[in-house]
Amino acid sequence: MKVLSVFAIYLVLFSQMLDTSVANVALINIAADLALDTFYASLIMTSIGTGLVISFPLGNLLTRKLANNAVFILGALIFLVSSLLCGLANDVYSFILFRFMQGLSAGMAVVTSFSLMTVTLGKERQALAIALCTSAISLAPVFGPFVGAYITDMLGWRWLFFINVPLITISLLILLPKLETTLSKDKFDYGPLITLSIFGLSIAAFQYCLDFGEKYGWFTDLRIQGGCLLGVLFLAFFLLSNQRWMLVDFSLLRNAQFRTSTFILCIGNGVIFSSIVILPIWLRMDKSYTILQAGMILSISSVIAAILSPLIGRHVKTQYYVWISCLSLLLMAISFYMMSQFKLNTSETTIVISRIIAGLSLATFTAPLLSLSLEKLEQSEVTSANSLSLILRIFSANLFTSLSFIFYKKLTLQNEGEYISKLDRLTLVYMQDTNNQVYHSFSIFRTNALAEMFLYVALFFLLSSVAITVLRRQQSELPASAK
């Protein structure tokens, strides 16, 4: 039956996208079981992101040799196995590897799901096929934090990954008898695949240095030195090879409107994603919220965005996207400014209001900026531009997640040092004998660190709204021949 096949495809895509956000609120639990300091828990999120950066172009390459069905099945099988291994992992290094495999396989499903859903429903129902796939990709992050919190609270964090095994298995049992997995008769060129593999190794090397740099003492450690050297060499090889295979078209960045809009979109996406990784840690550690409370607060903005985004996309005309983008950036600046004022005694109502404003901003954040970035490009360049934008956005999310943990710890220790330097010896002795006082002080240090980081982010979004306005005014003043 078509209904079962559609359901199976939707379930595979939804479960894979769900895993990109389901672990956000469970970072403390996962880090504790894997003997990992919470301040180094960024790699729990960046490992799957690194796999995703590579998987999108990899999926496209594989479809040149394998049928879309085969690539989809391959991705689902790798995701099933890697999910099981994530749940069984007892050390941080194996867990990172299996999370990377999850990301590597998830992108294959995204790349092939649209065509697979269209074939299943029939070309005459292509609009419905696209809507269903988009729904799975959009709704998974909405439910991720709350689902992750509920499963962790009821069954433990390992079931965040075990739950994928029966879901994917059922889906494959439905799909396998009906899918053809033929090979293309065309000769496959392995040059692009090798080039892409080198690109993946470069990304992985740099991400390793970011995630483990502070732990090992940065460039004083041979592992970090070697990782940076390999990253540079792999990147140089990729850039040279890319000139021949053109897997990623960096020349698009010469267009000022694409460059500026993409820069704001990528940096904004990075800081937003990193904030929803850091925020639940603060809520649980310093506000003493339960994992379910943290999950619900985190989900508020995503729910609002999921409801409003389709309505805005349907009813707002593209000529108003510039002002919609400015409004979105201003709302995000207000949200982050409110979060920069958080204290240990901040009420839950204030926290919820800040997330509601963030949700209103998210509803109008990606689509208008993406539309503006593509506006001045030729139609033949749109696909390459979308691919480049997506890769940069995922890479930015990884980068800022790692950086946020680094600066969170650095600012916390800096606040601690400034506080201790002002205390006399007798007070220090008293604090050492009073664990509650010490714990409360560290909560203050972490809260101040969080507030300082969010204040800088608020300033970025405020300046970005100005930059979009200035850029648009400059574009409108150009003569028609220059446009």
Automatic annotation (TrEMBL):
<keyword id="KW-0812">Transmembrane</keyword>
<dbReference type="InterPro" id="IPR011701">
    <property type="entry name" value="MFS"/>
</dbReference>
<feature type="transmembrane region" description="Helical">
    <location>
        <begin position="351"/>
        <end position="370"/>
    </location>
</feature>
<keyword id="KW-1133">Transmembrane helix</keyword>
<feature type="transmembrane region" description="Helical">
    <location>
        <begin position="70"/>
        <end position="90"/>
    </location>
</feature>
<protein>
    <submittedName>
        <fullName>MFS transporter</fullName>
    </submittedName>
</protein>
<dbReference type="Pfam" id="PF07690">
    <property type="entry name" value="MFS_1"/>
</dbReference>
<dbReference type="InterPro" id="IPR020846">
    <property type="entry name" value="MFS_dom"/>
</dbReference>
<feature type="transmembrane region" description="Helical">
    <location>
        <begin position="320"/>
        <end position="339"/>
    </location>
</feature>
<feature type="transmembrane region" description="Helical">
    <location>
        <begin position="39"/>
        <end position="58"/>
    </location>
</feature>
<feature type="transmembrane region" description="Helical">
    <location>
        <begin position="289"/>
        <end position="308"/>
    </location>
</feature>
<feature type="transmembrane region" description="Helical">
    <location>
        <begin position="96"/>
        <end position="116"/>
    </location>
</feature>
<feature type="transmembrane region" description="Helical">
    <location>
        <begin position="128"/>
        <end position="151"/>
    </location>
</feature>
<feature type="transmembrane region" description="Helical">
    <location>
        <begin position="157"/>
        <end position="176"/>
    </location>
</feature>
<keyword id="KW-0472">Membrane</keyword>
<dbReference type="InterPro" id="IPR036259">
    <property type="entry name" value="MFS_trans_sf"/>
</dbReference>
<feature type="domain" description="Major facilitator superfamily (MFS) profile">
    <location>
        <begin position="5"/>
        <end position="476"/>
    </location>
</feature>
<feature type="transmembrane region" description="Helical">
    <location>
        <begin position="390"/>
        <end position="408"/>
    </location>
</feature>
<feature type="transmembrane region" description="Helical">
    <location>
        <begin position="222"/>
        <end position="241"/>
    </location>
</feature>
<feature type="transmembrane region" description="Helical">
    <location>
        <begin position="262"/>
        <end position="283"/>
    </location>
</feature>
<feature type="transmembrane region" description="Helical">
    <location>
        <begin position="453"/>
        <end position="471"/>
    </location>
</feature>
<keyword id="KW-0813">Transport</keyword>
<feature type="transmembrane region" description="Helical">
    <location>
        <begin position="188"/>
        <end position="210"/>
    </location>
</feature>
